[in-house]
TrEMBL record:
InterPro entries: AAA+_ATPase, ABC_transporter-like_ATP-bd, ABC_transporter-like_CS, ABC_Transporter_VariousFunc, P-loop_NTPase. Residues 3-211 form the ABC transporter domain. PANTHER family: ABC TRANSPORTER ATP-BINDING PROTEIN ALBC-RELATED. The keyword Membrane does not apply. PROSITE patterns: ABC_TRANSPORTER_1 (PS00211), ABC_TRANSPORTER_2 (PS50893). The keyword Transcription regulation does not apply. It holds the Pfam family ABC_tran. This is ABC transporter ATP-binding protein. Gene3D superfamilies: P-loop containing nucleotide triphosphate hydrolases (3.40.50.300). Keywords: ATP-binding, Nucleotide-binding, Transport. SMART domains: AAA (SM00382). GO terms for molecular function: ATP binding; ATP hydrolysis activity.
Amino acid sequence: MQINLTGLGKRYNYEWIFRNLTYTFESGTAYAILGHNGSGKSTLLTILAGHNLASEGELSYLASGKTIAPDHAYRHLSLTAPYLELVEEFTLLEMLDFHTRFKPLRHSLSNLDLVDRMGLQKSKHKYVKDFSSGMKQRLKLALAIYSDSGMLLLDEPTTNLDQEGVAWYQEHIAQNREGRLIIVGSNIQHEYSFCDQQLRISDYHVNLDKRKP
Ligand SMILES: Nc1ncnc2c1ncn2[C@@H]1O[C@H](COP(=O)(O)OP(=O)(O)OP(=O)(O)O)[C@@H](O)[C@H]1O
């Protein structure tokens, strides 16, 4: 997998969030998108995921050397983000049945195998709405990490996780990163410490001072 960005820019109304972003993301590499609150990390991730449109520039996806149409990119990626909701009315097993109908799991794992990997055996018949916030986050992460996708986009992946949950995240990423393109939006070291490359979104902010005569 490869994502190529050329002169990418995004603005909301009259406010440019970033501009002139030219960058290549490649399989086998993990990237951290870094920046302070409100700097545009989530905005860039939603554009990469095809959930949001750039205001200028070009974005292209390649799989095995072939161009993928942007509206088909979702087939190759999995995403987790604080704003993405689980189906609260499902039990854990119902949630996994629903999800894996659209996105099968990697390594031919069964849904029960995934329950084991999450360490949520005792909660398999519990409604998602009754999960703690840390259990919900672990479920969201597991669905993303264990989906059979070449691109893994993780926005603030350890939100609501305690120390044990963070260790679980690090362990399962390490076991499932090989050959994949991973992009983490974060400003917390333990979320992106495994990443090979760092992209500072603030390097692409429009510096208004520079435009003054
Ligand atoms: N739909 C929207 N309409 C208008 N402005 C928006 C919209 N979404 C985001 N913004 C603005 O874009 C900027 C970047 O927001 P974004 O959520 O991408 O930042 P972030 O780096 O992910 O922040 P955080 O670390 O707080 O999650 C902010 O100023 C935000 O208010």
